[in-house]
Amino acid sequence: MVMHLMHDGGWLMAQAQRLILANLFVALACAAAGWLGLQVTVGEAAVPLVWPPAGIAFAALWLRGPSMLPGIFIGAAGFSLISAGNPVFSLLIGLGTCLPAFVACTWLHHTRPDQPLLDGPGGLVAFLAIPVLAGPILSATVGTVATVAGGDNLEAATASIWISRWVGDAMGILLLAPPLVLVTAPGATSLLRRRWVTALGLVVGGAALLTMIALLEPLWMREGGRFALFCLILTAGLRLGLLGTSLYTLLVAAGLTVMTAHGQGPFAAADYQTSFASLLAALSILSVAGLAIATVMATLRRVMLAEREARHQAEQALARLCQTQNNLVQAEKMASLGRLVAGIAHEVNTPVGTALAAATRLANDTRSIEQALATGTLRREQMNEYIDATSLAARILQSNMERASRLIESFKHVAVDRTRQDRRRFDLAGYLEEVVISLRPQTRKTPHAIALTGATRLSVDTYPDAVAQLVTNLLVNAVTHAFPEDQPGRVELDLRADPTGWIELRVRDNGKGMTREQLEHMFEPFFTTGREKGGSGLGLYLAYSQVTQKLGGTLIVESSMPNRGTCFLARFPAVAPPLSETGEIRPDPPAPIDLAAKRRSA
């Protein structure tokens, strides 16, 4: 507990020391800025043309809060006491420096909570309206009272003093507050570092222009110099951002003020007050124009960055979605292959079991004959019965093994093609029959009839895995969703070839058809009408993807009237286009598969 209190006490002491050092720094800055402001004054009361402590006070309170009030007051009041020697005047000057900045910061924080200074056009308008225009009303009033309280007989010039102090404080905030506040923002100098060549060029160009204007006297040079300065400020606003523009404007303002004080430059005139009046008007226009351009450009940059970030996030989300979708599609393909394997295994088990029973019976009869021969008790009738049983067992074994062989061979062709991406030449009609045979374990559980019509032999050079996936998904979709419960139907696979070398495969049924809404979303991923049956909504999407992306064709669906069935038409070229234009020479494809014998046996 004691250690904890000691740790807290040390932390509080460090915080107090930092606060004292910050106030001391602000006090010295206000005093130094006040001395600079008094170097250029107007009127009998020597009112500063620009009062820099006003800008420092606002920046300090905006960045660090009311804890900076002691430093601001001590700096402004202490310098006034040293320069004027009047305690009342000094106290009022310190109060006039603190009070407007505190009110302006409080007002801004209330109207724009948690918003940075000059954050967009709204922030610029609020900055110009509250700290620049409204805040100096208080400081000008207090400063005028301080001047009168100083003992000078200036009642006749009170209005002029008030206006001069209001202008001086407003210009101090307008010129000094933005760079002091913006320089502390995160990443504020990054744009200046990236465009340091532009910044250096503008500084050198501005210095050269001011020097040329100071040395040359013609009127056209002064007017041209004003326009050139305005162009430089606008260029800074376009290229250097808010911080660079505010710093550049401050440098130009300092140079113009020094030149005007020495009777040189584009704003020098015979009348001292007229010179600085035109200078202040020009500086206010330059400052506001530069900040406006820089604010608009900063807003555009933020919008562009936000749009770029949103586009990047959208692209990442789309990539993740595509990856997830591909994973789901692959999972659907593997699930389909798994159902195929399970069905084939169950289907092969029946003929194999029958053949095993026949072989077992034949082995038992053979042992009986062997025993009869060994004991000499073999009868003719027994031998004839054995011959008949052997002949029957042989027929049973042959038919069941042929059936198992057909199933296994069909499974081999279809399953191997499902797991490979090779392109080859094969007989499409025979391959469709192989696919239908491999799906028989799934389709025979339904009361629907499946028929193959059209071409009996059709050679193609394409991707058998895509064809198998297409036919499987369309056929399973038909027998699963096309018919009402327990109502028998017919699914027909019609294969044709047109004279242009394109294949037309129609999968049609005489079921209940589809609604217009279902037709509109038929090929969208994850759209299904059989979610309660475990449907994933990827079957038809996968079929569509295989036809359009791999086979290079199209897939459309027709279902014009209720209870008139549905027809899927897949059109693709007999010679599939290459998946990638790599220029590689493909090896010669194998010869077409001859399935005539299997069709005859089926």
UniProtKB/TrEMBL annotation:
The keyword DNA repair does not apply. It catalyses: ATP + protein L-histidine = ADP + protein N-phospho-L-histidine. The keyword Membrane applies. Residues 579-602 are annotated as: Disordered. SUPFAM superfamilies: ATPase domain of HSP90 chaperone/DNA topoisomerase II/histidine kinase. The chain crosses the membrane at residues 61-82, 89-110, 122-149, 170-189, 195-215, 227-256, 276-300. It is found in: Cell membrane. Pfam families: HATPase_c (PF02518), MASE1 (PF05231). Keywords: Cell membrane, Membrane, Phosphoprotein, Transmembrane, Transmembrane helix. It is a multi-pass membrane protein. Its EC number is 2.7.13.3. Residues 343-576 form the Histidine kinase domain. Signal peptide: none annotated. InterPro entries: HATPase_C_sf, HATPase_dom, His_kinase_dom, HisK_dim/P_dom, MASE1, Sig_transdc_His_kin-like_C. GO terms for cellular component: plasma membrane. GO terms for molecular function: phosphorelay sensor kinase activity. This is histidine kinase. It comes from Niveispirillum lacus. The lineage of its organism: Bacteria, Pseudomonadati, Pseudomonadota, Alphaproteobacteria, Rhodospirillales.
